[in-house]
Specification:
Length: 102
């Protein structure tokens, strides 16, 4: 999986259920990709820090995240949701959050 240029902040403050679904998908996907990079570096011996959590637990977590992403992708296909259609316009995201705070 190659992630688009989304950040976790891009996925916050959605009211519309379809956009919340997209946000949930991208939050999990972004976290999965970061965890995957950590595991690769850990296995290669190039990770600069040594996590307290065992690699076995990290790999199990990664596996469960992949399963969850698969379920979300199937659901998106059934619902006709384009997983690549999350607006990353910072002004739009900022306005969304400000409206919700009111």
């Amino acid at each position: 999986m190659v992630c688009s240029n989304y950040t976790l902040n891009d996925t916050l403050c959605f009211v519309d259920p379809r956009k919340r679904f997209l946000a949930e998908y991208w939050q999990v996907r972004l976290r999965y990709e970061k965890l995957h990079k950590i595991i690769i570096k850990l296995e290669a011996g190039t990770l600069k820090i040594k996590p307290k959590t065992s690699i076995e637990i990290l790999i199990k977590q990664e596996s469960l995240m992949v399963q969850y992403l698969h379920m979300l992708e199937v659901q998106a296909e059934i619902e006709g949701i384009n997983l690549n259609k999350l607006s990353t316009d910072p002004i739009e995201a900022s306005n969304r959050c400000e409206r919700l705070a009111q």
